[in-house]
Design brief:
By secondary structure, this protein is of the alpha/beta class. Helices cover 36% and strands 24% of the residues.
């Protein structure tokens, strides 16, 4: 049985987990992309793992790992991932796949971000025009990537006015808000392509190297939390970097567009 849960409150510690359950914290973008629906049945069939997904932002996923409430995490924000391992909460970090972040906005694009030469310049134009903008605002990998771009633009979201809407929600909910407000937003490409309620929004800017979006797998350290399902987590890791996983990831498309590129190493 495969279960996918949106995190809503505290979990019991790993010590109360059933021995045949593997708890994996994953980003909302992974869930929203639809790739989970492709990979999870194959994982269950091949490994016999009872996989329970906790669908959260990257920041929350890391905190669940620190607390030992999950056995492994699959997230997309390199600096905090490396800190997670350096602090002893994870045994290692293994890259699995990547895509990119994209800038979405009204098809009319009155501030003309589509004509800019970089992501920071796009956000600068939005800020100068005080055009309606939606931020995840939830300490997710996408939110961290957005904050990095504001920093490059030498702008501080804390100083912005009411045009800047930090919703504190997952990617799907944030995109729905952007659609309702006809607003600009940063999304991972996969979530955007799988999003059904696009309304008058369109993909306006992509391709800046700062928008690169790497996903990595980190098993929780059993020396910190002896009750985690570490051996099971390692089995899942080896499956995720297998040829079968690579083929499933690389061939997953929506409307002829590839959502992820596998780059895991054996």
């Amino acid at each position: 049985m495969i279960r996918s849960l949106v995190f809503a409150g505290s979990l019991c510690s790993a010590s109360c987990a059933q021995s045949d359950i593997l708890k994996l914290a994953v980003t909302t973008s992974f869930e929203n992309s639809g790739l989970a629906d492709v990979l999870l049945p194959e994982i269950e069939a091949d490994l016999g793992i009872d996989l329970q997904l906790l669908v959260v932002g990257t920041g929350q996923a890391l905190r669940l790992g620190e607390a030992g409430d999950v056995d492994a995490i699959l997230v997309h924000s390199r600096a905090p991932e490396e800190a997670f391992v350096a602090d002893g909460f994870g045994t290692h970090r293994r890259e699995i796949m990547y895509n990119d972040f994209v800038l979405i906005g009204p098809k009319s694009d009155k501030v003309q971000i589509a004509a800019t030469s970089g992501a920071a310049k796009s956000l600068q134009r939005i800020a100068d025009a005080q055009a309606t903008y939606v931020s995840r605002g939830d300490d997710s990998g996408t939110h961290k990537a957005e904050l990095k771009i504001w920093q490059i633009a030498e702008l501080e979201p804390a100083t912005f006015g009411t045009w800047y809407n930090a919703v504190g929600a997952g990617m799907g909910a944030a995109l729905n808000t952007a659609s309702a407000l006809n607003a600009y937003i940063i999304s991972d490409r996969a979530s955007w392509l799988n999003f059904k309620n696009k309304g008058d929004l369109a993909l306006l800017f992509s391709g800046d190297p700062v928008l690169f979006n790497q996903y990595a797998y980190l098993p929780v350290n059993p020396e910190k939390h002896p009750t985690v399902q570490y051996e099971m987590a390692l089995k899942l890791e080896e499956w995720l970097v297998s040829e079968k996983s690579a083929a499933l990831i690389n061939t997953y498309q929506i409307n002829g567009e590839t959502l992820f590129v596998f780059n895991g190493q054996q």
